[in-house]
## 1
Amino acid sequence: MEKQADFQQLFLQEVEKRVPPNQQLAKYLVNSLGIKKSNAYRRISGETQFTWPQVAKLAQELHISLDVMLNQDQREMVMFKLHPYINSIEKVREYFSNTLSSLRMLKRMEDVELFWTARDLPIFYFLSHPILCRFKAFVWLGGAESHTLLDQGNFQFNRIDDETVALGMKVGKAYAEISSTEIWKESSLENVLEQIRDYYEAGSITKETAFQLCHELSEVLENLHEATVNGYREDFPAGHFNLYSSSYLLAENNAIARVRNKHIGFIPYASINFMQTENEAFCARALNWYNDQKKKAILLRTASAGIRNRFFSQFFKQVENLKKRIEWDSED
């Protein structure tokens, strides 16, 4: 019974941390669980315990990791939550929907920041432009359903429906409305540029499509440059945006969310698929590594205009070089 009481107390503390700041805890419990106000106060005071169905409902709504709470004494064990494995258009939509829900939950909370190491172009930048969004979905699916997206060997945009793209664009916008810090290096665009080149050379996308993708990448860079100079994104002037330039190897596209004094770690596997954990020891180590990378990097907002311009010029040049190569190939 003592362990059960300890769990109930810890769980209530987690609920209280995650309830939107404009709502009272008791009112949230009344609305979420469909209980009377007097019953809500009894649960807050500890007089009455939450039932397990109530615990499960609140944990799902507020993204509370029960695995972590139930295994707090096992310091070296890390529990991960697996997200749906992406191998179909339906799973892409599910991925977008789940990600959108998580980002909106973060946005409702106070003092939230996302940290990202960008070995490759972060996914949210693909989701800020419709053609990049469709292309990325095509690449994700790879051999799983790529045959359904081709017509005589060419990628057909209309095979990835407008509903999926619109949902993806909402994800991109939601990310832009949260304060974030990103670390990039000079090779962060290499992967997407190679994908465009490879799919063009294989005949899966046309020259026109390849040029459209390059144009949207240039728009991504222009918006990123503006946000870097301003220190905030156009969609979220009340927040902040910091971009660092690193010359060191960034091994993965890792992300950490800080929510007040709590952290959530996101670990990629098998391409775009990822798992998450709220294990404090794991997140603390990951954040320490991230902060070490920042110390070795250059904060572009406070760097000289020359350093900042050289950083972005290299990416614009990479895009232009790909366009020239495609132009040359098409003339052969």
## 2
Amino acid sequence: MNKLLIALAGVGVAFSSWAHSSSCQSETLLVTFQVTNSQVINTQVTGANKFESLKVSKADSQLGKKQVVFYRSNNKVAYQYPQTGISEVFNRITDQRMLLQRYFDKYQRGIEYQPNEVKGKQSWQTKYQIVSPTALANMQQIAQRGSGCQQEHDYQQQFGETSITLTWLPELHLVKHYQLTDKHHRITWQLTELAQDPKQVTAYFKEKRSYLLTDYADIGDNEQDPFLAKMINQGFIEHGSLGFYNSQGQNISPTHDNHSH
């Protein structure tokens, strides 16, 4: 696997205001992440502990920045990719079965996939909390601080040439900081906004429900539909996770289990 780095950090005023709340209300969240894809140039490693001594001797070569907006509302979550105008909404049926709707804002259309039509391993908890429970369980906790909704747990892991760091918000079941790096690549997820805003979350899901949905199983009977024909041509019909990919075509989003060891 071509290994990379992911980081999420920085929670704003909305998070701070929950510090002394008796209930963190983790069921309804609106979270914005900034994702930066960089190439690490000319790394140098010194000392016995590679994890702690990784140095970057030249500036990163930045390949691009994107946003991911995460919506959580009880038994459904959404990942919105503003740069492409695409959203994926996952509806929990069981812990291992999810109904997926992929929405295209420009066309106000969507495609619905039944659980047996969704490719790959289905883990509701991974979609719900952004990071795989398997990945979290395999990491070593190294620090703990704060209380209430501001409680934070720091984790780390190293395998081969890859190092991972994670700051976890246990009361919110949410990642604050996640970093996966090797000597060549760096992908950074940074949490820039976090709010408990039921009205905004409800409005988002309501808007998506107003879009015209086509069942994946019915696409073959509707190939003359200009929207569906365009989506087929662009490769958006056959379902595979959106997320972010490395140069080897591997999904390196934190919701994917590629880096769970």
